[in-house]
Design goal:
Number of domains: 2
Shape: globular
Strand content: 5-15%
Number of helices: 17
Largest sheet: 5 strands, parallel
Oligomer: single chain
Structural class: alpha/beta
Low-confidence stretches: none
Length: 373
């Protein structure tokens, strides 16, 4: 029986095709393709046992063991799970690590059940290579970097642009000690895949936020990071009270909304308090013991006031955090940059307009269609 194959084309991801990842759960957790659902051929323990058999006794022994481990009711349940997914998503495509034996077996079992679906030639590995190549290619596209002090809503500016690449969104992290998301951070592989996936719809000029290479637990791929370092820049400048309101939204209001949704009122509140207190304590080396103790006291008092219905009380510790820690750190970095690389310095609205103007001009230079205003 001839089993259909599809090429490892990134159009599969661009089209939003549902993918059936038949690798073991541990492999899926290390990094999957965008849009993939994990319905494994073998679970982690079965995969481990088959791997040992392969190393000690060869491929045929490994296949025989796999057929023994995944048989009867176990096999029927896994085929039924694939059938249900295909019933909901008739265009679903199968993949395993290299597009070889595991995805082929899944195809055969599905075909025997009356369902014919293709597998990706080269599997996960070939698709990952294509996504990483897309990131490397993006390093050669026109690139603009948006900088500014903490609280200048740089991420919101990136999100307001049709050609903005939100690296913090890909990393599920706001890029500071206080920027952790309540949900687990993506693996490095998943961060790169999210970045590559977003780039599929961005063939022309790109605008990104000024980031360190490390965003939470993720690292920006080196070729793209080098391009960011050489790119022209905008700098957003906003007054302290405006930035405080933005920090209040990012670090308190939005964070509380996510914790509350995920964990409920009591546990969400406790986890948010713990996250912010821990984030503050991680700055001990930079803040010094006395300053950290003062900010920790102010933070604890702010939470008490917040419980009484006054969330604005957090300004008592957020304001000195900005003026005594984040602002001096950014200004130090700013002094090391060539001021001639700033194409524009101004408030948020003027920087948004400047980013759009730059994007339109850069698109004209490379022959891309003009972006909507």
């Amino acid at each position: 029986m001839s089993l259909p194959l599809v090429e490892p084309d990134l159009a599969l991801l661009r089209e939003g095709r549902v993918l059936i990842d038949v690798r073991a759960p541990v492999e899926y957790a290390q990094g999957a393709l965008p849009g993939a659902l994990n319905l494994p051929l073998m679970d982690d323990e079965e995969r481990r046992a088959v791997g040992i058999a392969y190393k000690q006794r060869g491929q045929q022994a490994a296949i025989a063991l796999g057929e023994t481990l995944v048989s009867g009711g176990i096999k029927a349940a896994r085929v039924a799970a694939w059938q249900r997914l295909v019933a909901d998503h008739p265009e679903a495509i199968i993949y395993c690590f290299r597009g070889g034996l595991r995805s082929q077996i899944a195809q055969e079992w599905l075909a025997a059940a009356g369902v014919m679906r293709p597998r990706i030639r080269g599997g996960w590995k070939a698709m990952r290579q294509a996504l990483c190549a897309r990131i490397d290619a993006a390093a050669g596209q026109p690139l603009l970097v948006v900088g500014g002090l903490t609280g200048c809503a740089k991420t919101a500016l990136i999100e307001a642009l049709d050609n903005g690449l939100d690296l913090e969104g890909c990393a599920r992290h706001k890029g500071s000690a206080f920027g952790r998301h309540p949900l687990p951070a993506p693996s490095q592989i998943d961060f790169e895949h999210a970045m590559g996936h977003r780039l599929l719809s961005l063939p022309g000029p790109l605008v990104v936020e000024d980031e360190s290479r490390h965003i939470g637990s993720a690292n920006v791929p080196l070729t793209f990071w080098h391009a960011m370092q050489q790119a022209p820049r905008l700098r957003v400048e906003m007054p302290l009270d405006w930035r405080l309101a933005q920090i209040q939204k990012d670090y308190i209001d939005d964070l509380w909304a996510v914790h509350r949704q995920q964990f409920g009122d009591w546990l969400g509140w406790a986890l948010m308090r713990k996250q912010l207190a821990t984030a503050l304590s991680r700055l001990r080396k930079r803040l010094g013991g006395a300053r950290l103790a003062r900010l920790s006291r102010l933070q604890a008092l702010a939470f008490r006031e917040h419980e009484r219905g006054n969330p604005q009380a957090h300004e008592a510790w957020l304001a000195p955090l900005l003026t005594e820690y984040y602002d001096p750190m950014y200004r130090y970095q700013l002094e090391k940059r060539d001021p001639g690389r700033f194409l524009h310095v101004g408030d948020w609205e003027s920087c948004l307009a400047a980013a759009r103007e730059w994007s339109a001009e850069a698109a004209r230079k490379v022959g891309e269609p003009a972006l909507p205003a």
